[in-house]
């Protein structure tokens, strides 16, 4: 692995850590982002210089977030990991879930702490309004993205089907 690749993987790890994820999860994500195909836990652990157990734990975390997918190879009992087909959509959905969790907390606080100074009530109202606006917009964008990907997939399927039917 060359220096530029090591730099990129480490930077992805640091940014993931800044977002509250384990650094190894970010490094795993960065490694697979640059990998041309699926990799086993052993391959990933060796490349990153970490334990197979750490890679396994963080791979399961990224699977739950929809950033990776687990695949198998014919004749091989090991699990392999690769980027999920719509990993960016998974990243956006993960962030959306975090914002919704914050909104739920604020809503509960407004209920449990009804008597607050005007400045606090206004801040909570603002947060509620901003959250509704941005989440609605992001949900709309995610739906449009899903439609665009579905249309592109259908177009790809139709064009490959047409090529197979040509004499």
What order do the helices and strands come in, and which of them pair?
Elements: H1 3-18, H2 23-34, E1 39-40, H3 41-48, H4 52-64, E2 68-71, E3 80-83, H5 87-112, H6 118-165
Antiparallel strand pairs: 1-3, 2-3
The CA-CA distance between the termini, in Å, is 46 Å
- Please give the CATH class of the largest domain: Mainly Alpha
Beta-strand residue fraction: 5-15%
Specify the biggest β-sheet.
3 strands, antiparallel
Fourth-tier CATH superfamily name of the largest domain: Winged helix-like DNA-binding domain superfamily/Winged helix DNA-binding domain
Q: Please, what is the average pLDDT?
A: 88
CATH topology of the largest domain, what is it called? Arc Repressor Mutant, subunit A
Count of individual helical segments? 6
Sequence stretches where pLDDT stays below 50 over 5 or more residues: 160-167
CATH architecture of the largest domain: Orthogonal Bundle
> What is the H-and-E element order?
HHEHHEEHH
Task: Walk across the major sheet and give the strand order.
Answer: 1-3-2
Helix fraction by DSSP (H/I, runs of at least 4): over 70%
Domain count, please report it: 2
Rg on CA atoms, Å: 21 Å
Number of strands: 3
Notes on the structure:
It is a single chain. This protein is 74% helix and 6% strand. With 167 residues, it is mainly alpha-helical. The protein has 2 domains: 3-83, Orthogonal Bundle (Arc Repressor Mutant, subunit A), CATH 1.10.10; 87-165. A hairpin with an 8-residue loop joins strand 2 and strand 3 (80-83). Helix 1 packs across helix 2 (23-34), helix 3 (41-48) crosses helix 4 (52-64) and helix 5 (87-112) runs antiparallel to helix 6 (118-165). The radius of gyration is 21 Å and the shape is globular. 14% of the residues are buried.
């Amino acid at each position: 692995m060359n220096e530029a690749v090591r730099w990129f993987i480490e930077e992805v790890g640091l940014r993931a850590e800044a977002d509250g994820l384990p650094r190894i999860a970010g490094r795993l994500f960065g490694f697979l982002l640059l990998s041309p195909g699926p990799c086993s836990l052993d391959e990933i652990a060796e490349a990153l210089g970490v334990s197979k157990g750490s890679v396994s734990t963080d791979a399961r975390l990224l699977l739950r977030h929809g950033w990776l997918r687990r695949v198998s190879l014919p004749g091989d009992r090991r699990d392999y990991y690769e980027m999920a087909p719509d990993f960016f959509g998974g990243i956006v959905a993960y962030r959306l879930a975090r914002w919704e969790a914050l909104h739920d907390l604020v809503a509960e606080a407004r209920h449990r702490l009804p008597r607050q100074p005007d400045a606090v009530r206004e801040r909570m109202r603002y947060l509620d309004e901003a959250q509704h606006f941005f989440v609605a917009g992001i949900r709309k964008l995610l739906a449009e993205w899903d439609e665009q990907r579905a249309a592109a997939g259908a177009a790809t399927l139709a064009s490959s089907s047409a090529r197979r039917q040509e004499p």
